[in-house]
Amino acid sequence: MTGTSPEGVARQELTQARYGYAFALPAMLLIFGIILGPSLVVIGISLTDYELGALDWRWVGLGNYQEMLGDRTFWRSISNTFTYVAILVPSAVLLGLAVAIMVHARTRTKRIYEVIYFLPVTTTLVAMAIVWNFVLHSKIGPVNAVIVALGFEPIGFFSDRDVVLFSLALIALWQLIGFNMILFIAGLSAIPQDLYDAAAVDGADGWVDRFLRVTWPMLGPTTMFVVVTTTITAFKVFDTVAVLTNGGPRGASEVLLFSIYLEGFEYFRIGYASALTVAFLTFILLFSVVQAWVIDRNVHYR
C-alpha cells in the first residue's frame, strides 16, 4: 500500500475544511441575521438623533452617550437594576439548590415535586403578575390581611419605595426556583455514588461533610451555568415592572430595560434608546464574562 504524498494530504485537508465551512455557513448566516446584524444596527442608530417616525435624522456621534452619562434617570435605573440583581441572583441560586437537594433525595414522590416546582416556569409571568398584584395588594390582598390580623401595619408591596424591588424580586424568585432546581437536579444525578462511598470511608458520614466534600465541588459547572443564566434573567426584568408598578413609586422600580422602553416607545427617542440598549448589552456581557471567569477558576470539571 503506497503512502499519500504531502500534496495529496494538503488537498484532502483543504477539501475537508471547505466542506466544514459549507456546513457551518447556514448557521453563521443565521447568527449574523438574528443576533450580530441587529446589534450592529442598534450601535449605528445609537450614534444618531433618530426619532420614531421621523423622515430625517442627524449624525451625533457619541452625543447620546454623553447625555446618558449626565442623565440622573439613567443612573437611577442602573442603581435599581443592580439592586434587583443583587436581591434575586443569590436567592434564586441558593434556594434552587436547596430545593433540588430536597427533591433529589425523594424516591416515590420525586417526579411529583419536580412537576409542582416547575409549574411556575411554564406560566406566563405577565398573567401571573396580575394574580400577584391581588395577593400582595395593600388593602384587599390576603397577605396584608394576615399581617393586619397579626397586629402589624399593612405593607405597600408595590407602593413603598423601600419594598417595591423586593416585591418584584419575590415574584421573579417564585418563577426561577423551579428552573434552577431542574438544572441542579441534573447536576446531582450526574455525581457518581462511588464518590460518596469513598467520602464515607474517609469519615465524611454527615450530610454537611458529604455536601462540602463531594456535592458542592462536583456541582461547580452546573453552578456556574445557573449563576450566569440567572444573572442575565435578572438584568432583563421588564414585564412585572410594566404591569405592576410602571416604574413607580417615583421611579423606585424604573429599571434599565424599562427606561429603554420609555425612551424608545413613549418619548420616541430611538437614537437615545439605542444608546441605552448598547449600555444594557455591555453590562450583561461584562457580568457574564466576569462571573464565568471567576467561577471557572474554582470549578472542578469531571
Summed up, what is this model?
It contains 13 helices and no strands. The chain is an all-alpha fold and 302 residues long.
Question: What report would you give on this structure?
Answer:
Helix content is 73%, strand content 0%. It has 302 residues and is an all-alpha fold. Helix 3 packs antiparallel against helix 10 (220-235). It is flat.
Oligomeric composition of the shown chains: single chain
Provide the gyration radius in Å: 25 Å
Measured distance between first and last alpha carbons: 42 Å
Main structural class: mainly alpha
How much of the sequence is in beta strands?
Answer: under 5%
- How many DSSP H or I helices? 13
Beta-strand segment tally: 0
Record the SSE blueprint.
Elements: H1 6-45, H2 63-69, H3 72-104, H4 110-122, H5 125-135, H6 142-149, H7 164-189, H8 193-201, H9 207-218, H10 220-235, H11 239-245, H12 256-266, H13 270-296
Helix pairs in contact: 1-13, 2-13, 3-7, 3-10, 3-12, 4-7, 5-11, 7-10, 10-13, 12-13
